[in-house]
Design a protein that fits this description.
By secondary structure, this protein is α/β, with parallel strands linked by helices. It has 12 helices and 9 strands. A 5-stranded parallel beta sheet has the order 7-6-5-8-9. It has a 4-stranded parallel beta sheet with strand order 2-1-3-4, with helices on both faces.
């Protein structure tokens, strides 16, 4: 019997208890993958891609295979999705053919359209406002490296520095407020880099709950990173950014580069995270990402385990 229908459009589509449940299952799957080899037998996942992907496609496809299921990668450029056919109609049609859909697309409206009439789980694999699958992998990585595999994130501080007008930034802020982390973000001033006011309002509402974390926007990278347990950076450039636009972004963002000196301002045992792909010499120096505090490849691997656990929770009754 299938689980009750749930869509995951951002990390707060899940409760804190549900996130902990996914993480616990992810750690079990990572430790004993063979024990779950038939969990999604005869289940099919459709992966819609409007944006390029390496980690997302490989981790989802490998994950479905390891759970006994099947994944289909479909590039939206090969079809009239969103043009000749609405996302609402696409979600309704795909529900009659597959067991779940992940979508890596340009906007939150596309995710909402897919979910509007879908009768199978729609999981956001990245849009302009959120990246919940990445958040689960990030929380798993923090749990492994900072909490000994536990899930009490209260007291853990996370600093994000760089472009704060970013889907990863937004969901890190939401995840921190939801799970009890102290989150500080810092980036250049101005409309091109600032956190959306709606996201700030979401986080303020989340922070009002018992056991919630705090989210704060800082003026400088040094203020955000001071004493942090986790330092996080993400790509400064979208696909295709070039020329004068690229040069202007580099100038604005350079004060927020994660250097060895900036890492020294964090807690002595701080870890460095980047959801990849990464450019050495841009959002972080080579010495940081290739240094002893970097956990970026553990973080990338955990996309596999966290996504397997999420899909299993969405598709298996009572799990």
């Amino acid at each position: 019997m299938a689980a009750a229908l749930r869509h995951v459009t951002k990390i707060t589509s899940l409760s804190a208890a549900e996130v902990r449940g996914v993480l616990a299952l992810a750690l079990r799957m990572k430790a004993t993958p063979r024990a779950f080899g038939a969990m999604l037998e005869r289940k099919t996942l459709l992966m819609l891609f409007e944006k390029p992907s390496l980690r997302t496609r490989v981790s989802l496809e490998a994950g479905m295979t390891s759970l006994g299921g099947h994944a289909i990668a479909y590039m939206t450029g090969d079809s009239p999705v969103g043009e000749k056919e609405t996302y609402e109609d696409t979600g309704a049609v795909l529900s009659r053919m597959v067991d779940a859909v992940t979508a890596r697309v340009g906007t939150r409206d596309q995710i909402a359209g897919l979910a509007a009439h879908a009768t199978v789980p729609i999981v956001n694999a990245l849009d302009d406002a959120a990246h919940p699958m990445q958040m689960l992998a990030d929380l798993q990585t923090i749990a492994e490296h900072k909490l000994g595999g536990g899930f009490d994130f209260s007291g853990v501080s996370l600093a994000f520095v760089g472009d704060c007008q970013n889907n990863v930034t937004y969901d890190l802020m939401r995840a921190s407020a939801l799970m009890g982390l102290d989150c500080r973000v810092a980036g250049p001033p101005g409309a091109d880099f600032a956190v959306e006011t709606g996201v700030l309002a979401e986080c303020a509402a989340l922070a009002a709950a018992p056991g919630a974390g705090a989210v704060r926007v800082c003026a400088t990278a040094e203020e955000a990173v001071a004493g942090a347990d986790v330092v996080y950076a993400d790509s400064w450039m979208s696909y295709g950014t070039a020329g004068a636009e690229r040069a202007a972004r580099l100038d604005a963002l350079l004060p927020f580069q994660v250097t060895e000196a900036l890492m020294a301002a964090a807690a002595p045992d701080a870890i460095f995270m980047n959801c990849l792909p990464a450019m050495r010499g841009e959002e972080q120096t080579a010495a940081v990402i290739d240094g002893p505090q970097s956990v970026v490849f553990d973080q990338a691997e955990n996309r596999l385990h966290a996504q397997k656990a999420l899909l299993a929770k969405l598709l298996v009754e009572g799990l």
